[in-house]
Every structure is written in structure tokens, then in C-alpha cells.
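Q: Hi! First time doing this. I have a protein sequence and I read that you can turn it into a structure. Is that right? Here it is:
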Amino acid sequence: MLPRWPRGPLPCLQHRGQELKQQADEPTPVGNYHQKKEEEHSLLDKLTHQLQELAMSISRENITEIGELTEREEDDDSAEGDEEEDDDDEEESKESGGEEEETQEEEKQGNESHLQATSKEYTAVGNFTAQQAGDLTFKKGEILLIIEKKPDGWWIAKNAKGNKGLVPKTYLEPYHKEDGQESSEEGSEENVDVGDETAEELEVKQRTGSHWSAVRKALSEQINTVDVLTTMGAIPTGFRPSTLFQLLEEGNQFRASYFLQPELAPSQLAFRDLMWDAKTGTIRSRPSHVSLILTLWSCKMIPLPELSIQVLSRHVRLCLFDGNKVLSNIHTVRATWQPKKPRTWTFSPQVTGILPCLLDGDCFLRSNSLSPDLGILFELGISYIRNSTGERGELSCGWVFLKLFDASGIPIPAKTYELFLNGGTPYEKGVEVDRSVSRRAHGSVFHQMMMMRRQPQLLVKLRSLNRRSRNILSLLPEILIGSMCCIHLLIFYRQILGDVLLKGRMSMQSADFISNPVLATFPKLLEQPDVMDALRSSWAEKESTLKRSEKRDGEFLKAVFLLVYHDCVVPLLHSTFLPPFRWAEEETEAARWKVIADFLKQNQENKGALQALLSPDGVHEPFDISEQTYDFLGEIRKKAA
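A: Yes, that's right. Below is the predicted 3D structure, encoded as C-alpha cells:
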């Protein structure tokens, strides 16, 4: 879709918007926070309402003028036809006079405007939803009568019901009544194809299983705030409320802990993705349709919000996607950036000690989906807080879809991909992240190359698997995305799960609760990455003291892992000194890591957590025995729901 420009001068409203923007840059005292927030919201609602009324009035005036012009031309044509029947000489004079008038009109139109009055029918090649007042909503295949063609790419059209409004010309093709077939418009603007993954390749599919309807309500609650920020110029026009964040907030079904639980077979008598291998004495490996490792390299030329918005976190969320719905958990990787290059995001920075799993750009991916449209959806996002009101939110800075199979069903090659970002949401089409650097730029080849270099983009590398990596990934659930630095801990959990559910159960028909703190609490670590890092650090320290023969003994390693888990994770989860985990709160994250670091240091000095647990200084929250038991039927019921 072509970029959209203002439709008329609005000096008064623009002046008011500038005043509002200046007010947004000034921090507000905490005491009158709610009052200021209510005043700002009411003022912004009033401003938005005025803009909508003004846009509607301008649209009506344009349509009325075009209608009068068309009627006037038809009357002139009929009058000329009557005169032609009466006198041949008058016909010639009228024709010459008509030609002079037409020449004058063309010159006048060339000087004043580029409007072209037409009455040609066009067919819609896709669905379009009105973005603001004055737009016309239509569906694919609908026939529209074009009243006026504007040079900015937005035409005035009328549908079969008589409704008029503005429509994008990129959604239309000429309609031929003779053969009933559609043909592409010969004089249409050429689009610059960037990579294999652009918004034009993703059709807006309306299916019953789409997750777009699930998040539409949540997004609509935030759209007013985003519209206000866009009107103020605080964020680029392609920014939207984060779609994947809203899915995470909807419930547990898009979190890693959901996909980590075993799944029952259709018979309900055995597990579908967890089987025991009697020969090896451990769980059986299960290959999947898609099994790969990817590395997030960097993000370049990402637009910056203005100073009225404070950015708390820059991150990339990724998941499996088929163009219609999310097919896996949503994995988040936090990016780092340098003050000298604020528009460039990087991953996996050099740190002292272990790399936090939240910053690890190496990710594994497994899926058994047979969809030919299967791919990876990347959404770049920021967590922000408004300086004027203290309001927090999540914004999408752009998204891109990397399809994993070509048209022949062959997997795409393992290499580095330079993916150019799309604006809007994954369910929108033809939206630019920042229209000031549109990829449909005109001009010389050199100018277009320079514009392409300024496009927001994501660099990601797909890595081929060797035999060892493939064997390791085959022990994980069939559908899961996660960090490579935690994969050995996930395998320990799966092996303990197999021991408890398959090997150690006296009767397979027993549905009693299983007393096992590891199985009961380990899924919580996937939502608390700092505690997961504490477990990684403790295990790495313990593993460095083991002998080579001990490392080759799987049963011995599981026993040692259980001891490390009980010494590290269980006390931390019940410590009263550890604040609750909150996303993108720097003070809370720093306080949590200080408590974790002090606890690990104390464990190292005392060679275990027993002394800290028995110390009168240690205070822990009470817990019920049910919190330390694993109800696998309950977890499966949650998964089914």
C-alpha cells in the first residue's frame, strides 16, 4: 500500500497537537498523576473526534464536487450531440470550440490538480478494513465503481450499496464484463521486491482458527493510545500494539511451560510424545518434521521513539506461524544497544561469567506441523513508559515472516538471511514501518539503493544440524522454541519426567499425585529467567568438579542434578527476600539478581544450602504439600483446555 499523507491543512489542530507534545515531554509530579492522566485522555479524545469530523466533511465536499463536475460534462456532451444532428457547420464550430475548451480545462487541471474523473469498475484483489473516517471497507472479489483517481494512490470509490469512501489502488484491478476475468493494471506502480519475505506474500486469511480475533479486543483497548502517540509524532506510523505480547497475556497456551508438559495419545492410555526405551534405560528420542537452530545476529535501522517515551526493553519475540495462527510457544530474546548506535540492536553480548538466557541469541526450534506455509514469525518490540503519565505498554516496531519451505516443499537453505521489516501487525498488509524511508521510493537506481540501505531489517542465520545436535533436540517435546544455553536442563527435566511417569510408576492406571518438587516447579523457571540462570551457574560449577567417568554415567548425572536443584532453586522460589518477577522493570530485576547472587555466594562458601536454610536469618514462605506434587492429569487437562 502506498504511504498516506495528510489530506488538508489543519493549522489549528496541528498547533494544538504541538502544545500537547510539549506537555508530554514534561515529567509530571507523582501527586497529581491520575488527574493529569484523565485530563490528557479527555483532551486527546476531543482532538481525535475533531479530526474525524473534519476528515468526513472534507471527504464529502470532494465527492460532491466530483459528482457535479461529472454531471456538468455529461450535460455538455448531450448538448453537443443535439447540435450535431441539426447543422454540420455548427458541428465543426462546436467541435473546434469544444477542443479549445478541453485544452483549457486540461491546462487548468494540470496547474491546479492531478485529479482524473472516471467511472470505471474495478475488482478488489484483497480484503481492506477502513483505517479512519472516510475510508471504504470492502472484501476480496467485490466490484467497486471508481469516481476519482488521486495521485497519492487513494481513490474515491462507490460500492454496490451506494457507500462512498477512499480505497487504496494497490488492492484493485480492472474489471472486464465481457469475459468476467480479472487482469492486472498495466500502468500500476512497480513494487520493489525485497527478499522472499514481504507483507505482500502473506494473504490476509480469515479462518475460524485465526488468533487475530482473540487479540482484537485487547488491541482495540490500546489503539487509542497508539493513535495519540502517532498523531503527536512520538512514534513512527508503522508502530502498533504488540500482537505476540497480547497473546502471551491472554493465557498460558503460548508459554514454554505449556508445551513442556507431556501429551496423551488419542487412546488416553499412553503418552504421545513421551516413550520409554527399555534398551537404553531412558526416554526414546523422537525426530520431528522441523528441527533447526537459528542465531539472531542484529537489527539495523530501527526507528526511535521521541523523548516523551522512555524505552525500558528492546527485544525480539519469535514463534512458529502459518500466516493465520501461532503454532508454538512465543520465545523472547532481549537485545542490547550502544548509545552511539541507538538504531542498532545486538544479541549475545560479551559478559563476565555465564550469558543470561534472556540475552542468548542462539535458539532451537522444533515442530511437527505439516503446513506448507509454516515459517517463523519475528516481531521486534519495545517496552515503554510515558514520561507524562507513567503509563506502560508494549509496542511492535515491525515484523517479518521467514517461510521455512519453498513452493516445492523443499526446506530453505541454512544461511544468513537479511529480512526487511513490515509495519503494522502480522494480519495487516502493505504497511511501512516508517514511511519517510519507504521501500517504494522513486528516482535513480542509486537513490533507490540508498533508500534500501535505510530500511529497518533483521539479520538471522539458520544453522544446519550435526548428528550430535540432532540427537539432543530429538529428546525435547515435538513442539518447542527455546534458548540453546538451557537445552541441557530441559533434557534433564524430560528424563526425570520419563523416570517418574514411565519407569517408576507401580501401575499405569494410577492417577495419584506424584511427590516430586522438580517436576512441580521446573516449568516456573521458564517464566523466571534469572532463577534459570542461577540453576545453570550452580550446575556448571558442580559439573566442573565431576570426573570424566562420572559425566558419562547418565543415572549419576541425574542424581547430582537433583541435589543441585534442591540446593539452589527450591530455596530461591520460597525466599521472602526475592521480589516477584516483573518484566522490563530495571529496579526489580537488579534487586532479584542481588538476592540470587548473594544466595549463590553463600551456598558456595557453605558447600550447600542446608546451613542457610537452618539459619535464623533465613526467612522463607510457607508452602502447601500440593505445591510440591506433580499432577500430570491436571497439567494435561490444562493443556487440553
